[in-house]
Amino acid sequence: MKKQLVFIFFLISALGTFSQKATLSSGEEATGNGSVSYSVGQVFYTTNSSSNGSSLEGIQQSVELFVLSNSDFKDLVLKAVVYPNPIQNSINLILENTSLKQLKYHLYDIKGIAIKKGSINLKKTTIDISKYSTGIYLLKVIGKDKPLKTFKILKK
Fold it and tell me: Do residues 42 and 24 lie in contact, with contact meaning Cβ atoms separated by under 8 Å?
């Protein structure tokens, strides 16, 4: 009787145990104007929807990186010289081979709030950031009211 009770206890407790396993029979990635990757045989997923779009979350998680550029500015080569790295007092922005006029810069904090704006009149522009606290900043170069290039800046 005691053996039967122990057996029934283990049998019932084993029924409540779940395991997670993903068996994929194939997988591939396709690219075009966007990127799509898939896995055949994935049986578990969750759908998230909002007014901005929807996504399916499952076992396969992919990361996609994009380089954003503006085709109106093909002749523009931007080079940022940032020293010392990490920055302590100033950012030096050097523009090479540019014929564009009326370039501006906007400096944003990590929350996306514009904290400093100015115009770029020379090939080398020095931007003083000594009064700002330690953290990550985004420096956006703008021409013809369009963003040309964005740099991630670390201030020490």
Answer: yes
92: tokens are: 């030096």
Peptide bond into 86 cis (omega under 30): yes
pLDDT in tens, 85-98: 677 788 888 877 66
Residue 79 near residue 94, CB atoms below 8 Å: yes
**3-state DSSP call for residue 23?**
coil
71-155: in CATH 2.60.40.1930: yes
Beta bridge partners of 125: 93
Q: What pTM was estimated for this model as a whole? A: 0.50
What is the CA angle 48-16-21, rounded to 5?
Answer: 50
Q: Which residue has the tokens 């090479």?
A: 96
- With a CB cutoff of 8 Å and minimum separation 6, the contacts of 147 are 70, 140, 141
